TrEMBL record:
<keyword id="KW-0149">Chlorophyll biosynthesis</keyword>
<feature type="transmembrane region" description="Helical">
    <location>
        <begin position="264"/>
        <end position="286"/>
    </location>
</feature>
<feature type="transmembrane region" description="Helical">
    <location>
        <begin position="93"/>
        <end position="125"/>
    </location>
</feature>
<feature type="transmembrane region" description="Helical">
    <location>
        <begin position="168"/>
        <end position="188"/>
    </location>
</feature>
<dbReference type="GO" id="GO:0016020">
    <property type="term" value="C:membrane"/>
</dbReference>
<feature type="transmembrane region" description="Helical">
    <location>
        <begin position="40"/>
        <end position="61"/>
    </location>
</feature>
<feature type="transmembrane region" description="Helical">
    <location>
        <begin position="209"/>
        <end position="233"/>
    </location>
</feature>
<dbReference type="GO" id="GO:0015995">
    <property type="term" value="P:chlorophyll biosynthetic process"/>
</dbReference>
<keyword id="KW-0472">Membrane</keyword>
<protein>
    <submittedName>
        <fullName>Chlorophyll synthase ChlG</fullName>
    </submittedName>
</protein>
<feature type="transmembrane region" description="Helical">
    <location>
        <begin position="137"/>
        <end position="162"/>
    </location>
</feature>
<keyword id="KW-1133">Transmembrane helix</keyword>
<feature type="transmembrane region" description="Helical">
    <location>
        <begin position="239"/>
        <end position="257"/>
    </location>
</feature>
<feature type="transmembrane region" description="Helical">
    <location>
        <begin position="16"/>
        <end position="33"/>
    </location>
</feature>
<dbReference type="GO" id="GO:0016765">
    <property type="term" value="F:transferase activity, transferring alkyl or aryl (other than methyl) groups"/>
</dbReference>
<dbReference type="InterPro" id="IPR050475">
    <property type="entry name" value="Prenyltransferase_related"/>
</dbReference>
<dbReference type="InterPro" id="IPR000537">
    <property type="entry name" value="UbiA_prenyltransferase"/>
</dbReference>
Length: 294
């Protein structure tokens, strides 16, 4: 039986997509309030779990169930091009799922629970009959949660070996909600194809202008709450930095909203960068609060 080349396997797992959950995992580690001394092996395993395992699994699952669509729109991808022959795409998705569960189990019950939840969403996102990706409201929510909220929770849970502090959970959830807007921006590049294929992305449902405003609002409101909460918790310097990063995003949003379809990719490379920097700032703000049990 023909087997795929290692380069095709790597392309299927899409390393470029691993950054977001790995960054969120790092934010969870920082926000936990725990010293990393003596836990570097656990941290390394958690980073591996967040990116090259769980996130990569979601990419493999997505490409397997989208293989017929990709044969029309992106025939050079590993599966439709034949570089990933037979059912190898499915076998790799299943194997990576099991490997992810094994690593998560070694990191503790809370991490295992988070991994199970994330992997279930990964399969539901792409696999029929559910295919959450068919509707932008549900699909973007699933991706935002899996890319930001769950990895943050996992990083904090790995360090604390318990359920993270409620403030950590709130901040992680707010950034996961904001990521819904980032996912909406990603959908601008495929509006015509989504409309033809019956995928009800947010831009397809709302139109470009309203979807762009909605995406900006969904990104900005959770960060406003983060700023307010950090200020209430006495982390005024950190609140000020996150507020400044949000102000920078708002300025970029104003430019993006003038021509959203043409500038969505540009904003994803500029405004989103400020967004994720704010995540790390918020994580450092939480650290002394959790350490001191304030």
């Amino acid at each position: 039986m023909a087997t795929p080349a290692p380069s095709a396997v790597l392309e299927l797992l899409k390393p470029i997509t691993w950054f977001a959950p790995m960054w969120a995992f790092a934010c969870g580690v920082v926000s936990s309030g725990q010293s990393p001394n003596g836990q570097w092996l656990m941290i390394g395993a958690g980073v591996l779990l967040a990116g090259p395992l769980v996130c990569a699994t979601s990419q493999a699952v997505n490409d397997w169930y989208d293989r017929h669509v990709d044969a029309i729109n992106e025939p050079n991808r590993p599966i439709p091009s034949g570089r990933m022959p037979g059912r190898w795409g499915f076998y790799l998705a299943a194997a990576w799922t099991l490997l992810s569960l094994a690593v998560a189990a070694a990191l503790g019950p809370w991490v295992l629970g988070a991994a199970i939840f994330g992997l279930v969403l990964a399969w539901l996102y792409s696999a029929p009959p559910v295919r959450l990706k068919q509707n932008g409201w549900w699909g973007n929510a699933a991706v935002g949660l899996c890319y930001e909220g769950l990895p943050w929770f996992t990083g904090a849970a790995v360090m604390a070996a318990a359920v993270p502090d409620r403030r950590v959970l709130v901040i992680a959830l707010l950034y996961a909600i904001g990521a819904h807007g980032i996912m909406t921006l990603n959908d601008f590049k495929s509006i015509e194809g989504d409309r033809v294929l019956g995928l009800r992305s947010i831009p397809v449902q709302m139109g470009s202008a309203y979807a762009a405003r909605f995406a900006c609002l969904v990104m900005a409101l959770p960060q406003t709450l983060v700023v307010s909460l950090l200020a209430i918790w006495g982390r005024t310097w950190h609140a000020g930095i996150v507020a400044a990063l949000l102000a920078g995003q708002l300025a970029l949003m104003a430019y993006f909203l003038q021509r959203p379809r043409e500038r969505a990719a540009w904003y994803n490379g500029t405004g989103t960068t400020l967004y994720v920097i704010g995540m790390l700032v918020a994580a450092f703000a939480l650290r002394p609060l959790v350490q001191g049990g304030v």
